[in-house]
Amino acid sequence: MIGIMLFTALVGIIGLRLGELSLTGSSAVAATRQIAFAPPRADIVDRNGADLATTFDAFALAVRPHAVVGDPEVLARRIANILGRPSALPIYKELTHHGKYRYIQRRILPAEAKAINAIGEPGLVLEREQERIYPNQFLAAHVIGYTNVDGVGQAGMERAYQDRLTDPEMRDKPLELAIDARVQHAVESELQTAMTKHSAIGASGIVMDVHTGEVLALASLPELNPNKAGAVSPDAIFNRATLGVYELGSTFKALTMGMALDSGVITSMSQQYDATHPLQMGRFRIRDDHPKARWLTIPEIFMYSSNIGTAQIAQQIGSARQQEFLKELGFMAPAEIELKERGRTLYPAQWGELATMTVSYGHGIAVTPLHLASAYAALVNGGVWRPATLLKVQGGGVGKGRRVFSEEASRTMRAMLRLVVTHGTGKQAEAQGYRVGGKTGTAEKPDGGRYNRNAMVTTFAGAFPMDDPKYVVIAMLDEPKGTKETYGFRGAGWNSAPVVSKVISRIAPVLGVAPSDVRDVDLNPYLAYVQGKQPTG
């Protein structure tokens, strides 16, 4: 009777265990156990609550080589077939390894786990582990970043907020970013199209709220899939928007003009500078790309992007004041944002008169596109600089910032930037009804101590709507080539400016900016000093 009772109890225990295994999807030949390689992480969402990064339970396939009873060669082929592997050899090597425990593959699908479980091989182990997934794949990848197999952030916000995302008390509270997935998609899409069309090696783009510093979109190409970060090239992982530094050319002329207005160097739009011939400085000669060969007024220097005129204005500003302005605009320190991937400005070691002149039009100084976006936000928002942020600013959370330009200088520069788009080098940046303003910038890339005429960086720094600026939009292409459509030209007006136009046309309705055919900046006070251009109205 005691034997019968023990036998009955044993059968009951086995029955309960079988029931448990049937519910958990495990078996005696494929043990499933909870492991903690990847610590639980809070989700990352965009400003509207859309998932950008989340954690889910996945399977990992491992093997105890000494416990394998089947033919390793046959078993390897079966596993390779289930996992869609082109070769069974790596799997065979793991099955026959001398170690006690070997991973075959992390993150396998539930259907694959079920098929492997059905093989019935005692040496195989299916583990449950938490995996980080990025449901939008490439979208905002350089902002979000990615984790390694141990669940530690390696880049982007995953790295910058590792402690916050893994804090047990914060796991149920998603990290809210300033990024708008809809705006981000528009920027990435248009940059990718332009990069392909102009055979560029890379690109970057930024959309920033000029009053809060919130970054609604930040893109870097080539694209990165954070779900497969270990399988992409270093070039794709590199963040061109916040880490890469470039000479951004004539986009700096807007900052120089703002400095000149507040320094008292420019007191009237009627002031003229001699641009009849190149400017000789020792053994260096400063030229205009499209010389007018005459004296130019302030609006003409800006809208025709005259290096000669801008350099003379910078001479009057002086090196000390120029450096102080650039420091106040954040250029003399790494780009200010939450990411760890931040570039530091490269500027002249000897900042003399010649350096002052070349820096005024964006040569001899290399900055990140993010530096430029923050500076342009200050230039058009009334003159207040604020650090960029990738975190959503909650109601009333905007700091005071610091005043860099006067309100009067900011108002003047809004008109001048609008003038570039309506009458100058940035005409292709116009987006019907949205009153775009901005400045083109084309610069040759340094190469071995010299400039390479065949490798250019083209940038358009813009804002809209210029009668009441709300957003700055930056588009940069790295080494674009001329096309039949651009008549072989590679300048920013031909490739970067159209990107800004298309981005604004797509994002303005999403951001609640209404088009208008009647509202605009009054350009008559500036057109009055442009030869051959008559004021309207």
UniProtKB/TrEMBL annotation:
InterPro entries (alphabetical): Beta-lactam/transpept (IPR050515), Beta-lactam/transpept-like (IPR012338), PBP_dimer (IPR005311), PBP_dimer_sf (IPR036138), PCN-bd_Tpept (IPR001460)
Keywords assigned: Carboxypeptidase, Hydrolase, Membrane, Protease
Compartment annotation: Membrane
Domain (Penicillin-binding protein dimerisation): residue spans on this chain: 38-164
Main localisation: membrane
A Pfam family matched in the record: Transpeptidase
Protein name per UniProt: Peptidoglycan D,D-transpeptidase FtsI family protein
